[in-house]
Design brief:
single chain; about 220 residues; alpha+beta; NADH Oxidase; four-stranded antiparallel beta sheet; 4 strands; about 40% helix; oxidoreductase; oxidoreductase activity; Nitroreductase
């Protein structure tokens, strides 16, 4: 049963097209009740999973110490990634360099303040034996990531923002050990969660559909 938290007056299409990766507009000062996140997770758990196994797990961090641990590993991974990205942009500037630099600046900001975000949510999934399958892993992650995106959408509809991140996975085992996550549970995504400064998010610029659409074959 949904709790009586404020909801934005958005259509399904508006939620789907205006859920953005929010970084600089996360409100680091406004507390996020755990109940708001669990309310959104109740919606997320309606997502599909292979054989209806529902092997997902959700680790919600609200205390300063575990958030700091995850943030430190995230920063360690992020700044190595950012350095490589900056070198790549310098060697071969992208077509929209201004947008690329704005995204980089936003991502750097998030890395710097990660532990200040009111809640960090890690989406994970049970893997028998703990070892990821060889070859195509779509079947495994397809049983977690739709629910994680449903969570992002449900948060948006409740006036909260998040940013889809995976960089901490470079140190997945270290994070698992620090948080007591079993070896048979593998992490797939990290969502920093906060109320947003304003709720007026718009659809992003995307390549035209005809450039990626293939009908009846490639």
């Amino acid at each position: 049963m949904a709790l009586d938290f404020p909801h934005l007056d958005l259509s399904a299409d508006e939620v789907l097209t205006s859920t953005r990766s929010v970084r600089k507009r996360l409100d680091l000062e406004k507390p996020v009740p755990l109940e708001v996140i669990t309310d959104a997770l109740e919606v997320a758990l309606q997502a599909p999973s292979g054989s209806n196994a529902q092997g997902w797990h959700w680790i919600v961090l609200t205390d300063p110490e575990p958030k700091k641990i995850v943030a430190e590993y995230y920063r360690k991974s992020y700044f190595a990634y950012a350095e490589a990205g900056a070198a790549a942009r310098a060697a071969k500037p992208p077509k929209d360099l201004e947008t690329a630099e704005k995204v980089a600046s936003s991502a750097t900001y998030l890395a710097e303040v990660m532990e200040q975000v009111p809640a960090l949510v890690i989406g994970a999934i049970h893997v028998p034996g703990g070892e990821l399958p060889q070859g195509n892993q779509a079947g495994l992650w397809g049983s977690l990531l739709p629910a994680a995106w449903s969570l992002a959408l449900a948060l948006r509809e409740r006036g909260l923002g998040s940013a889809w991140t995976t960089l901490h996975l470079e140190y997945e085992r270290e994070v698992a050990e620090a948080l007591g996550i079993p070896a048979t549970v593998r992490q797939g995504v990290l969502l920093p969660v906060a109320y947003t400064k304003g709720t007026d998010f718009k659809p992003a610029k995307r390549a035209p559909l005809e450039t990626v659409l293939h009908v009846n074959g490639w």
